[in-house]
Design goal:
2 helices, 16% strand, elongated
């Protein structure tokens, strides 16, 4: 995908009649040539890292349906203290609209 974007950007620059690089082309070149992945995504050894646990649940409501799940357990987790848990269901997304109007 990256090479396709570079090819399109090069083609646009070659077809430029005024000899100047258009602002849009400059922006595309900046984004394409940016380091991948960005620096903030690199592992920071000073930050404690937890672990990701997962499993499968066989549905009692819909026999034969198996749902996978993952739980991130932070390194700071202490079983002696209550912890928050977010359950994210398949195809769930936050929305300002109610799921049902009934």
């Amino acid at each position: 995908m990256r090479s396709l974007i570079l090819a399109v950007a090069l083609l646009i620059s070659l077809l430029s009649t005024d000899g100047q690089t258009p602002a849009v082309l400059a922006r595309i070149q900046t984004e394409v040539l940016a380091p991948t992945p960005p620096p903030e995504s690199k592992v920071d050894p000073t930050v404690p890292h937890g672990e990701m646990l997962g499993g499968r649940i066989n549905s009692r409501v819909y026999p034969g349906t198996v749902n996978g799940f993952q739980v991130y357990v932070p390194a700071q987790y202490d079983p002696a203290k209550p912890a928050c848990l977010l359950v994210n269901l398949t195809a769930w997304a936050p929305t300002s609209q109610p799921c049902s109007t009934t």
